[in-house]
Amino acid sequence: MILAARHISVRYPGAAGRALDKVTVSLEPGRLVAVVGPNGSGKTTLVRALLGHLPLEQGSAELDGKPVSEWRRAQLARVVGVVAQREEVVFPLTVTQTVMLGRYPHLGPLSPIGFHDREATLKALRRCDIEALAARRVDTLSGGEWQRVRVARALAQQPRVLVLDEPTSSLDVRHRMEVFELVRTLVADGLAGLVVTHELNLAARFADRVVLLNGGKVVADGTPAEVFQRDILSDVFQWPVAVTTFLDGSPQVIPLRVGEEAAEAPKR
Known about the structure:
By secondary structure, the protein is an alpha/beta fold. The protein has 2 domains: about 5-90 and about 160-230, P-loop containing nucleotide triphosphate hydrolases (Rossmann fold, 3-Layer(aba) Sandwich), CATH 3.40.50.300; about 230-268, no CATH class. It has helices spanning about 45-50, 75-80, 95-100, 105, 115-125, 145-155, 175-190, 200-205, 225, 230-235; strands spanning about 5-10, 20-25, 30-35, 60-65, 65, 80-85, 160-165, 190-195, 210-215, 215-220, 240-245, 250-255. The strands form 3 sheets. Strands 6-7-8-3-9-10 form a 6-stranded mixed beta sheet, with helices on both faces. It has a 4-stranded antiparallel beta sheet with strand order 2-1-4-5. Strands 11-12 form a two-stranded antiparallel ribbon. β9 and β10 form a beta hairpin. It starts with a strand and ends in a 13-residue tail after the last strand.
């Protein structure tokens, strides 16, 4: 295990209740963990706590067995690559220049760009299949292309852990699938992966393990088939659903219309 939260609790200043309540989750190489749950369930708070951005009321967040709070930010960025939930294009850099920013934790503010930095950048461009976009300005990219650039920038850090918070937000079907296919490939190559997502069916198709949060607590933790149970999901999301099985064996969640019954899962 590389990155782990052990029974962590977080309370925001002035809040009556905890944003996270004794949550445990761990990441290991070659495995993708999906964190799912309704709005306000604590998903992004968990990511921030794991990365040491929030003080813990109790429990511990550890990277390689050492408390995350004891890691310097540059050291942390050499191990953990993060693709945050939202990011606006501020400067019209090229794709290559943007991905090269991922080398900052290795360079420092005044160090010159060297051979290894260029090699890491080129490798990240290739792994994300955006080498053909290298000279394009990022403000001319589609949403899916921009997400790939952001993942490539994280990979240029040469991390061992990749954390993505809602990476498919506002993307169409094709680009959502492309992002998840890319992440799955990177994890298969040895990265430990954590993805926060509202895409239950994509989590079911691509994740090895699912952590379901509600009200800051872990409601279920296990394989997609173990977590995506009709009664569990209907209760957590406060909406009736049916759960069927796709050809690959993964569960697929179908929200029901008002008045529809969910006594039996739909047939393939």
